[in-house]
Amino acid sequence: MEYLLAESLSADSLPVKASDLYFEVFNKFLLDHKRKEIPSESSTLDKLSELAAELLVKKKFLFVKEDMTKFDLREVESLRASGILHSGPPFRKSAFEETKHFCFTHLTLQEYLAARWFVERGEIPSTRKVSSMVMQFMAGILSKKRDNKFMEKLLEVLQSDESGCRGLLNRVKCLAEYEEKDFAKNIIKKHSSQFKFRRFHSLTDVDCIAVSFLLSVFGELNKEDTKKHRPFPELSISKSNLTQSGIKRICKSLEKEFRSVKTLSLSKCGLNDECVDCIKELVSSRLTELALEENEITDAGVTRLSEALQSPACKVTTLNLSGNQITDEGVTSLSRALQSPACKVARLKLDGNQITDEGVTSLSQALQSPACKVTILGLQNNQITEAGASSLSQALRSSACKVTGVSLTGNKIIDGGVKSLSQALKSSACKVTNLYLSANQITADGVRSLSQALKSSACKVTTLRLDGNQITDAGIESLSEALQSPTCRVTTLGLVRILITDASVISLSQALQSPACKITSLYLGENQITDAGVASLSQALQSTTCQVTTLHMGKNQITDTGREYLRSLKHQKPDLELKY
What we know:
This protein is an alpha/beta fold.
């Protein structure tokens, strides 16, 4: 790179494509070792390319002089002196004979030379024998020849050899390496089903060049015919190692006209606050959904994002920032944005951050603003206690609050917090239909408060998850009583991993047979239910008044006798979704 810049005084001459880079690398090897020039250079290069291809197909990366029968001694020495081949110390084959091991200085250099040979021969190897890098090099070499027929055959071989996300990415890389947009457009028109993708994983910054090229081609197709060649509305990149460089390239492509991507998901990509800066322009203009979960975004990144959310042109309605490094300070910035009339966020996920009661207080104030549009709020796996639950309860009682679904799973909420929430649920202003309180520190006392709320005619809860708490049979008894109330609306109930016994199951079974009970989905896995409990449930589900269509009971203490009850039940009710 330094040599090319020194020679040209311009960055425009730097190679961007892999094939161009390795063409220059190979030439630099020769240039730096002029003291021992390779004789009859083009002939030697052909023989070297042939050797590279033969060894690659055999997966033989270490070889001896005897493998180089087509080279004379001067050529072997020149290749070694040039640095293209590496030679180990001599070793004895016998008492009277010694030889040397050779290998290419780098595997990728061998792959480049092999690709050159395959192109010269008009041969396309299977990716079962060579790496996709060889095919990529071949595409780049073919771009100099503009051999569309050969290139199309190469893509066909890739299609038959590799499927899924990785196969698609390799075809896209080859198209980008060939670097002919008209050809790429024709290929996509001809094989449109092969390029209908939404998700990529394990990308690098370099891979983003290929993805950016594909987005550009789709944009041009969309410009030509919006209906026929409309590209994908969603782009998802996950489990990748991206820096600001790769993110910037993707975002620049998406910012251009005729790009229809509205949902962008960048999960587990190691993104930092600087990467958020690259995304801000998209947030301010095109996107309706943005997912940045499990990255390394801090409060500074959230502050920058909050500024974009307040832009009048911003269309983002779904924002997922779960699994980052956001504290109460970041939540405060976000809360200010949510109160802006321009902000359209309706689904907000902040799970798995470092949010405490202070952050929840900021959010609660925002939720009570008439301008706030949040309906779904995810706060699971944070550090919220009774005080945070109390603040949120106050917001839920506000007529301006629009929240219908809230998840507080995996926090530190005790019975006092549940009592506050129960008071909110009994308010006619409260709109919550889905409530997730799993993996907290709730006991039978808290469940009794909830049960009273569920019986209230004002309560709108239809989905209730209480998995992983400390609820005893007494708690289940009060809950069962609530389920039989005509005013109770609960249809989905989760009681996984709370160590309930057959006594609880008996009271639940009685509730399920009540004509007033509306439960359709019941989750009872990982408890202490035995065959006796299964018998009670089986009898309840056979009742004509029971409305259950989904029953999960895995990891209990059920024997073959209990399993036979369940098999018989499944036979009588084939539409029942049953797991045990």
